[in-house]
Amino acid sequence: MEYNFKEIESNWQKYWAANKTFAAKDGGDKPKYYVLDMFPYPSGAGLHVGHPLGYIASDIVARYKRHKGFNVLHPMGYDSFGLPAEQYAIQTGQHPKITTEQNIARYREQLDKIGFSFDWDREVRTSNPEYYKWTQWIFIQIFNSWYNKSTNKAEPIETLIKVFETKGFNCKLDDTLTGDIEKDLEPFTGEEWKAFDEKKKSDILMNFRLAYLGESFVNWCPQLGTVLANDEIKDGVSERGGYPVERKLMKQWSMRITAYAQRLLDGLDTLDWTESLKEAQRNWIGKSEGTSLKFKVQGSENSIEVFTTRPDTVFGVSFVTLAPEHELVESLTTTENKAAVEAYVTQAKNRSERERQADINKITGVFTGSYVEHPFTGKQVPIWIGDYVLAGYGTGAVMAVPAHDSRDYSFAKHFGLPILEVVAGSTNGTLSEVEGSYDAKEGKLINSDFLNGLEVKDAMKKAIAEIEAKGLGKGKVNFRLRDAVFGRQRYWGEPIPVYYKNDIPYALNENELPLVLPEVDKYLPTEDGEPPLARAAASWKHEGKYDYEHSTMPGWAGSSWYFLRYMDATNGSEFASKKLSDYWQQVDLYIGGSEHATGHLLYVRFWTKFLKDLGYIAIDEPAKKLINQGMIGGTSELMKQFIINREEIEKYNSISKEIIIKKEGKEIKRLDIGNGSEHCHVYLSIDSGLDIEFFDKENKSPIKTELFQENRAKVKYVMNSVLNIDEWIADEPYYAGSILITDEGYWTKHEYFDFTENKIQNISFKTKPVVEKMSKRWNNVVNPDDICEKFGADTLRLYEMFLGPLEQSKPWNTNGITGVQGFLKKLWRLFYMSPSGGGAQRAGEDSSNALNVTNDEPTKGELKTLHKTIKKITEDIERFSFNTSISNFMICVNELTDAKCNKRAILEPLLVCLSPYAPHIAEELWKQLGHTESISTAAFPDFNEAYLVDDNVNYPVSFNGKVKFTLELAATLTTQEVEAIVRANEQTAKYLDGKEPKKVIVVHKKIVNMVV
RNA sequence: GCCCCGGUGGUGGAAUUGGUAGACACGCAGGACUUAAAAUCCUGUGUCUUCGCGGACGUACGGGUUCAAGUCCCGUCUGGGGUACCA
Question: A460, A479, A498 — which closes off a domain?
Answer without folding.
Answer: A479
